Amino acid sequence: MNQDLVRLDRFDGSNFTRWQDKVKFILTALRIFYILDPTLASLPEPKENDTPQVVAARKKREEDELICRGHILNALSDRLYDLYTNTNSAREIWEAFENKYKAEEKVLKIELPEAFQVGAIVAKLPSSWKGYRKRILHKSKDYSLEEIQKHLRIKEELRSRDKMVEESNGGTNKANAVSKANHPRGKHNNDKKNSGNYISPKKNQEHFKGKKGPCFVCGKPRHYARECRYRKDQKGAVVNAIDEEIIATLSDVCVVQGKVQG
């Protein structure tokens, strides 16, 4: 037989039905698939008086059994080969595969109710969807798969949009916080106070408050011209000033005379 027909993908536990059909084709082409027939009678124990035909039939049966078992094991992955290599009967290996993997495929083909699938999807939502999950589960309406998918898609879009807005506002608030941190309240005033040119409001008032310089009338300080007693428009003040000047002059003359006589 052509070797290309014998070459099979190694079975690793998946797609059992496909693999089984391929093996069945190979074994049928080799005329040894009958070995896997569950109704096949077992070989009788050899006897001394067996005819040559019985001996030849037993020999062919044993060879077919060996070839069939070898083809099945040769089409297995290393893991499955190690599990079934100690099983001597090809039919036992074949039936073990059918009982295990066909049952699994039947389970996979079971159609679950749509309400059960919706409940499973809602139950698997992340913790951040806790409020939404509670609202859905407490509603009496049964949602279809298409409806729940539409709800989740809309909800996800809204959450993404809200997140973008929060991030945008967060960036603005952060910028304002940084600006306030760089320019704290009162720092501008403190900078002015620390500079040499700063003048407090009180001192500023004193600085610009008019100072009493020399009088324009008599030339003496500490009074204004309008308050000067030597002004011509203040007659009484002028007479008093002249008297004071005469008294001061007489006092000076007496002092000089006293010094001369002494």
UniProtKB/TrEMBL annotation:
Pfam families: Retrotran_gag_2. Keywords: Metal-binding, Zinc, Zinc-finger. GO terms for molecular function: nucleic acid binding; zinc ion binding. It comes from Vitis rotundifolia (Muscadine grape). The lineage of its organism: Eukaryota, Viridiplantae, Streptophyta, Embryophyta, Tracheophyta. This is CCHC-type domain-containing protein. It comes from the Eukaryota. Residues 159-207 are annotated as: Disordered. Residues 215-229 form the CCHC-type domain. The keyword Zinc applies. Coiled coil: none annotated. The keyword Phosphoprotein does not apply. SMART domains: ZnF_C2HC.
